[in-house]
Write a structure and sequence with these properties.
By secondary structure, the protein is an alpha/beta fold. The protein has a single domain, classed as Rossmann fold. Helices cover about 30% and strands about 35% of the residues. The protein has three helices and eight strands; from the N terminus they run αββββαββββα. Strands 1, 2, 3, 4, 5, 6, 7 and 8 form an eight-stranded mixed β-sheet that branches. A hairpin with a 2-residue loop joins strand 7 and strand 8. The longest helix is centred in the C-terminal third of the chain and has 24 residues.
Length: about 200
């Protein structure tokens, strides 16, 4: 049997336990954010554009999800639940290529079928890097990397391309800005190689 003081003690203990387990938030909820790479249009050129068919665009499994990806160490990648790409990376990168190459005065002209266009090339892209490398010196590096397989009348070639851009700060906005810069540099590199 409980005494009166024992009942009050038990009641106080129950109130403390129940009060500590409520769902009342003590901090504001974290808002989700969505991002897109910001890549400038291709620079205008006076030379005749190179006809190119964009074959396939694929993405390595480690970076294929919608969340921004961080490399924490060898073979350790983590996706950010609260900060995501607006489009999945495969669709987003394919859209970047297509939007950049449909311009009238760019160095590349997008065609539907390279086999019926004289001098045209077909490219297939495997995106192998689109992440923040936090295993590097703080605050880290933005890594954009891709393998580009090019087929044309002059044969085939495989280009291994990569840009590692320092991140200004450990924030999603700084990571996306550095990834945008890296993607811009890679697209320009591809365009210059196709023009050779």
């Amino acid at each position: 049997m409980f005494s009166l003081s024992g009942r009050w003690t038990a009641l106080a203990l129950v109130v403390l336990l129940v009060g500590g387990c409520t769902l009342v938030p003590t901090q504001p909820a974290v808002d989700r954010a969505w991002f897109l790479l910001e890549v400038p249009a291709a620079p205008a050129t006076e030379a005749a554009p190179v006809p190119v068919e964009l074959g396939s665009v694929r993405v390595a499994p480690a970076i294929a999800g919608k969340g921004l990806v961080y490399r924490l160490g060898p073979h350790r990648y983590e996706s950010d639940f609260y900060n995501e790409w607006f489009l999945n990376p495969r669709e987003h990168v394919e859209q970047l290529f297509r939007e950049r190459w449909i311009r009238e005065n760019g160095s590349v002209r997008l065609v539907a079928d390279a086999r019926v266009e004289p001098g045209a090339r077909q490219i297939d892209v495997l995106l192998t890097g689109l992440h923040g490398d936090l295993d590097a010196a703080a605050p880290g590096l933005a890594v954009v990397a891709m393998r580009v397989f090019v087929q044309g009348d002059e044969g085939t070639s495989l280009w291994e391309l990569e840009r590692r851009i320092p991140i200004a700060a450990r924030s999603p906005e700084a990571l996306v800005a550095a990834l945008s810069q890296g993607m811009s540099e890679l697209l320009l590199d591809i365009e210059q190689r196709l023009g050779v």
